[in-house]
């Protein structure tokens, strides 16, 4: 789409949003941002960073700023299922200045079990109230796998004795958009690892509504906030890969944009932790990096406000944003290369492009990895 | 009379039983589990390094450190550099600190009529998260601690960054929590003197006094801490009498018919864990003074947790000074874990108290793994005759709102508990 027509399209979407009533007439985001000591300049700098993250031209920055100011038109409901709360923890670390914190946590969040002050009956009432009052308008974000089938009685709460699965289904029914936040909600996650004692499954398996997956264990705060902003701006669902992950965030492999990629290409590998290669930032493939098989933008967005990411700290990627994490991404600290044909996707391995899985491409990449890996010395056998 | 509070971070239920308008028993039930211990069985030993931090996203780092130390204890004569030990301890300190901030600002303040201050919670939390990320790559769920050390090869630049995060966090404490310079506060020995300061902590303590809540939330006055490092001591405290000779052999887990969470006891008695317990074992003067005046109460518990922020920041600065960058980060174990048939355990101090991991390996395969979380200690669901720590603290109160405050003063974590 030409940038002009896209600009016009997003402008009219924002115009529509501005006609919706605010969640709280007393508070406005722009006033709040100002009250919290952020200058207009700082706010626009933040909007510029968000624009670039969403892969929009810099001239779209005013639109993103406007979208931020209109975030208080879209209520957000956040449900916890079988999970560790790591995704919420990741969200609590949204970018500096804390403008997204203001927008995300302070105003739009109608129901969040960890952040909200309410508890007990009041909390449940809040949820029912939000779902009823904002029917067809609220954004649903679900964190955690859904205990399913014979295990669906897990997470039964509330006066009506609703199961976790039922709560997720009910909240999905009238949501304007549904986002599965984290690998557990997207694909089942760690609790779905063999033998999957609670029969945990993906949110998309219990609802017939479309679910956008934002996997990662946890996903970076940028991917969570970016997903929300994409919806505010476009009003539609983003372009997705075969696993319903937004392409803007999950379109490339970790390996494609890894800061150690040059080392891989040069055949410079860490043979064991603590060796000279580790000290010099060599490629971590031989100590088990699953970057070539994992689609995510970790290397670009990083974590904790762009501070670092696992590979920067010297540990390989664990493939946490792929389906069947943990079962198919072992062995830790060992390369996956020799097991390509026995991994995810019915034996094809995750080593393909995000939306086009083909044996041809897979073979080429596998040969590539093997060839590059062979340049360096063979991994030292363990005692 | 039975009343229900069905939400404790989503997944637990409290049944309040009243007699003569006073709470005489509270039944605690957890209706969910993910059964992580079952998932770990028959997996490779190192899989636990990936799976266990996912037991809890709130104290996942403590789980990583507990896992790595439990696996390391399976070896004889495994070597660790002082640098690796210090770096692990630093990241654990930072996790504790950021948890304490969140508990105070997100959970405690609203009970005292204050608006929940999300931004005050997130600012220092973000700083500490960045400090962990600078060493471990990301937070939560880092994987940088491995058997034999840590994988990060930090430089002087990283040290400078981390020092700056500590300084900024200290400034936040001085500007918000207690408005006085941190040296004065660290030297303070009189708990009542805090009431003369201004800041978010003194405000809450004054409020407790004003509302006649000084005797609230008293339990058994029995404390225990198993985690040991350069700051925390291992031991138990019975009405301020401290003993350091305790053994994990006397810790027992027992099933509860109505709940998925197991009870935990030491020599068949329930003990409180957490910052107040640590301060009592460590004989922290200010907290011991609060305990002397107000017992194992809400006042002492809140004071101990917030004061620990300052102590850990201060101690972290000292730890950083001792790091020798020339030391190795990782020393390869003598043999591969796949040849190891052994058992081991670890205990670390997580934000909410002692976290214990026990592992049994057979040729590098996990045959059994047990995790005992801090909330299990504090939330053990005992009987009317022998209530658990938090259950006892709620007996005698006349309204549910106050009971909930007392309950949350232990900072229960259901995700950890229902592992």
UniProtKB/TrEMBL annotation, chain A:
[3Fe-4S] cluster binds at residues 298, 317, 320. InterPro entries: Cytochrome-c3_hydrogenase_C, NADH_UbQ_OxRdtase-like_20kDa, NiFe-Hase_small_C_sf, NiFe_Hase_small_N_sf, NiFe_hydrogenase_ssu, TAT_signal. [4Fe-4S] cluster 2 binds at residues 255, 258, 283, 289. Keywords: 3Fe-4S, 4Fe-4S, Iron, Iron-sulfur, Metal-binding, Oxidoreductase, Signal. GO terms for molecular function: 3 iron, 4 sulfur cluster binding; 4 iron, 4 sulfur cluster binding; electron transfer activity; ferredoxin hydrogenase activity; metal ion binding. NCBIfam families: hydA. PANTHER family: HYDROGENASE-2 SMALL CHAIN (PTHR30013:SF7), NIFE / NIFESE HYDROGENASE SMALL SUBUNIT FAMILY MEMBER (PTHR30013). This is Quinone-reactive Ni/Fe-hydrogenase small chain. It comes from Sulfurimonas hongkongensis.
Automatic annotation (TrEMBL), chain B:
SUPFAM superfamilies: HydB/Nqo4-like. Its cofactor is Ni(2+); Fe cation. Ni(2+) binds at residues 56, 59, 413. InterPro entries: Ni-dep_hyd_lsu, NiFe-Hase_large, NiFe/NiFeSe_hydrgnase_LSU. It comes from the Bacteria. Keywords: Iron, Magnesium, Metal-binding, Nickel. The keyword Acetylation does not apply. Fe cation binds at residues 59, 416. This is Hydrogenase.
């Amino acid at each position: 789409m030409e940038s002009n027509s896209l600009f016009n399209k997003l402008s009219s979407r924002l115009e529509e949003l501005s006609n919706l009533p605010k969640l709280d007439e007393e508070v406005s985001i722009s006033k709040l941002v100002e009250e919290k000591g952020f200058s207009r300049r700082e706010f626009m700098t933040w909007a510029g960073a968000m624009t670039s993250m969403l892969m929009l031209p810099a001239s779209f920055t005013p639109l993103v700023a406007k979208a931020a100011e209109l975030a208080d038109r879209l209520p957000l409901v956040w449900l916890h299922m079988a999970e560790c709360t790591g995704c919420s923890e990741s969200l609590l670390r949204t970018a500096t200045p804390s403008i997204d914190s203001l927008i995300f946590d302070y105003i739009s969040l109608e129901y969040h079990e960890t952040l909200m002050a309410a508890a007990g009956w009041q909390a449940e009432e809040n949820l029912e109230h939000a779902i009823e009052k904002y029917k067809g308008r609220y954004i649903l974000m679900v964190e955690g796998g859904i205990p399913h089938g014979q295990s669906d009685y897990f997470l039964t709460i509330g006066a009506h004795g609703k199961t976790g699965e039922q709560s997720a289904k009910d909240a999905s029914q009238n949501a304007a958009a549904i986002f599965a936040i984290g690998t557990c909600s997207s694909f089942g996650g760690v609790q779905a690892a063999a033998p999957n004692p609670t029969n945990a499954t993906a949110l998309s398996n219990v609802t017939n509504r479309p679910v956008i997956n934002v996997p990662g264990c946890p996903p970076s705060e940028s991917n969570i906030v970016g997903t929300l902003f994409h919806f505010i701006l476009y009003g539609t669902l983003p372009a997705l890969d075969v696993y319903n992950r937004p392409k803007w965030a999950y379109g490339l492999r970790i390996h494609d944009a890894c800061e150690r990629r040059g080392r891989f290409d040069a055949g410079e590998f860490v043979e064991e932790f603590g060796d000279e290669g580790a000290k010099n930032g060599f490629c971590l493939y031989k100590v088990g990096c699953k970057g070539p098989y994992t689609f995510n933008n970790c290397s670009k967005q990083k974590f904790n406000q762009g501070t670092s990411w696992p590979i920067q700290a010297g540990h390989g990627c664990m493939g946490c944003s792929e389906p069947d994490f943990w079962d198919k991404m072992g062995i830790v600290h060992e390369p996956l290369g020799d097991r390509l044909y026995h991994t995810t996707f019915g034996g094809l391995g995750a080593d393909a492009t995000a939306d086009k899985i083909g044996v041809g491409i897979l073979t080429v990449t596998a040969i590539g990895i093997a060839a590059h890996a062979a340049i360096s010395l063979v991994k030292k056998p363990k005692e | 009379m039975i009343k229900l509070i069905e939400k404790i971070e989503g997944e637990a239920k409290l049944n309040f039983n009243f007699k003569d308008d006073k709470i005489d028993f509270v039944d605690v039930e957890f209706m969910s589990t993910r059964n992580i211990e079952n998932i770990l069985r028959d997996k490779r030993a190192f899989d636990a390094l990936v799976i266990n931090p996912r037991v809890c996203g709130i104290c996942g780092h403590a789980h990583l450190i507990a896992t790595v130390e439990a696996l390391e204890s399976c070896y004889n004569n495994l070597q660790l550099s002082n640098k690796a030990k210090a770096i692990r301890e630093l990241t654990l300190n930072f996790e504790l600190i950021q948890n304490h901030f969140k508990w105070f600002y997100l959970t405690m303040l609203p009970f005292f009529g204050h608006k929940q201050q999300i931004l005050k919670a997130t600012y220092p939390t973000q700083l500490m998260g960045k400090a962990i990320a600078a060493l471990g790559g990301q937070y939560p769920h880092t994987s940088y601690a491995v058997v034999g050390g840590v994988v990060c090869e930090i430089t002087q630049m990283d040290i400078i960054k981390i020092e700056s995060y500590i300084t900024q966090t200290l400034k936040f404490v001085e500007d918000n929590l207690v408005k006085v310079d941190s040296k004065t506060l660290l030297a303070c020995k009189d708990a009542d003197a805090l009431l003369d300061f201004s800041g978010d902590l003194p405000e809450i303590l004054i409020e407790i006094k004003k509302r006649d809540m000084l005797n609230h939330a008293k339990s058994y006055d029995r404390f225990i801490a198993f985690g040991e490092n350069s700051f925390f001591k291992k031991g138990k405290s019975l009405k301020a009498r401290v003993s350091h000779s305790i053994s994990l052999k006397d810790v027992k887990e027992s099933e509860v018919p109505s709940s998925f969470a197991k009870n935990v006891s030491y020599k068949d008695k329930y003990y409180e864990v957490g910052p107040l317990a640590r301060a009592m074992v460590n004989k922290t003067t200010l907290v011991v003074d609060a305990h002397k005046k107000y017992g194992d109460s809400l006042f002492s518990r809140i004071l101990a947790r917030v004061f620990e922020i300052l102590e850990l920041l201060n101690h972290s600065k000292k730890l950083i000074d001792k790091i020798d960058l020339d030391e190795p980060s990782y020393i390869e174990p003598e043999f591969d874990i796949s040849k190891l048939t052994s058992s081991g355990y670890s205990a670390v101090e997580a934000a909410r108290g002692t976290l214990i991991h026990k592992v049994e390996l057979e040729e590098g395969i996990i045959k059994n793994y047990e995790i005992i979380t801090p909330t299990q200690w504090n939330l053990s669901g005992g009987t009317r005759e022998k209530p658990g720590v938090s259950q006892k603290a709620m007996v005698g109160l006349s309204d549910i709102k106050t009971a909930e405050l007392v309950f949350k003063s232990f900072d229960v974590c259901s995700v950890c508990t229902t592992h």
